[in-house]
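Task: complex structure prediction.
Instruction: return structure tokens for all chains below.
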Amino acid sequence: MSKKLYLHTVTERVWHWFHAALITLLILSGCQIHWPDVLNIFGSFTTAIYVHRWAGILLACDFLLWLFYNLFSRRISHYILKLEEIYPGLPVQAKFYIWDIFIGKPHPYAPSEDNKFNPLQKLTYFIFMLFMMPILLASGILYLYPYFFAPVINLLGGLAAVAVLHFIMAIIFTAFFVAHIYLATTGHTILADFLSMITGYLEGEKGVRS
Amino acid sequence: MSNKVQLCILYSFFVFILMTFLVIFPYPVNASIQGKSSLEKAYAKQEINCLECHAGSEFKMQFPTSVHGKNGCTSCHTGVTDIEKHMRGVQKPKLVSCQTCHNAMTPRYIHRLHAGADCTTCHRPHLFIPAKKNCQQCHTSQSILITKPKPAKYSLINWKVTNKELMDKGLYVVGCNRIPGLDVLGILVVVFTLLGCIGHGILRFFGRIIYFFVSMDAISSGKRRGKDV
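Output:
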């Protein structure tokens, strides 16, 4: 039996693709800014700087949008792990990705309208959105207005320290970007999860939520 | 509340946040340098040509076509009124003050002119306010900014900052100062993530094929296995 599950609201979908576009621009412009002697993607170093700064500001606003939307609509609950999802949830989900998926077993925690993420997804998205993203944005904003935030920058060890922190966070997010796109193919069909992020609906999975 | 209403409210909020950013922190835009009238004000005709004693052939070639090429020497190098006293070393020119002509050198204007530069170009890292540099430190022929940055030596475990002489002078220049070892580590993290994903995908692909054949074999030999997914 196959049914359509409405998983992602319009706001979430629009937000997601806008966020994806900004992250892509930031990664590309960030690469040119970091290795200007090797890369020239945006025509000039100055253009790369402008793109990076504007996309960064928009990303900060976009993050606040995500935060307030999820808090006011209470859809933040999708990101919070329940006790049974921590144990045995996390080991079961990890075993799925490491072994069960290769032998054709169904998803142990298939999405439902009240609970669209599996335990590992919840953990990852929670850490990335509520911990990693604020650090990335904060380091970027310090870098963007160093004159204004000079006391904070001095506290952290100077502009070079902020630059290194920003670079490390950027690497983490680039790796996440790669893994995120790949893991989106682990739905019950390769394109199922991509389509659900466009239409909002996921065709019902044959797997059972254990 | 319908989705569309939610969307409208939230994107209005988003625009509000963006406008707040733009109003509180005006984004520096490249402004063209002050109008020619102030340069023309500083123009001074001279009867004696300073270049006869004071300039090498390179300066003579470069200066006339430069931004200040139409100025007389004493428009900036003021204080020499008696050429004989000057040649005896009694009268020396005063330090050049850019503000004489570029009189709107407010911090905000200076920042707009240097929009592309990193802040530690002028401000020492631990003494941001006020600026410790004057214009000459960069805008002279001895400027460190015209030295070509050395390309990074791409050894795998080089943890020294590239172009360290800039950092030693208290400068941190975006795109010029980086740690090659950290760059390599970062690239390896991303590359191994990608390879891991590709490997996982290959295993899934072959896993499905093997599982398919194993299932077929089990069915044909009369054994029942679990539900096919």
